[in-house]
Specification:
175 residues; mainly beta; Nucleoside Triphosphate Pyrophosphohydrolase; 9-stranded mixed β-sheet; 15% helix; globular
Amino acid sequence: MGKLDQGVAASRGRYHVVPRTLCFITYGDDVLLLRGAPDKRIWPNQYNGVGGHVERDEDVLTAAVREMQEETALDVRNVRLRSVVNVDASDPLAGILLFVFTAEATDCEFSPSPEGTLEWVSREQALTLDLVEDLPLILPRVLSMAADEPPFFAQYAYDEDDELTVTFASDHIPD
């Protein structure tokens, strides 16, 4: 099957996704969070993991490692896919497919990020911070996963009041 047989041209007008990564780096009992710069378009002054877009010429794992390196300059190991989330941003033709990873830093000395302020915080302290709206649900879940635990799947959508709703696939898939 060649590149023209992949069906991209035939799928114009159908729902498409923008692939992104979200990464949580740990060092001992701490997790590295990024407090968004006050002038950021999205999530100013809120805490999030690091990550970003998947480029055309890379797979999602390579993108996650690249984003962690670019935003922190940390060397990481044990990079693991923890979740895949389909984000319905209410555009009928486009959404986001978010790949959530964890990794362990080999040391705690990071470089400043142009995206905001990086901070090592304890796992418990993390939940008391002004987190991006989905993090109180997923951060404890991903940080408590066993090394060999398979990823979980979720779907984010916004209700009529523009409030985030989260549905986990396990809520709908029979055992």
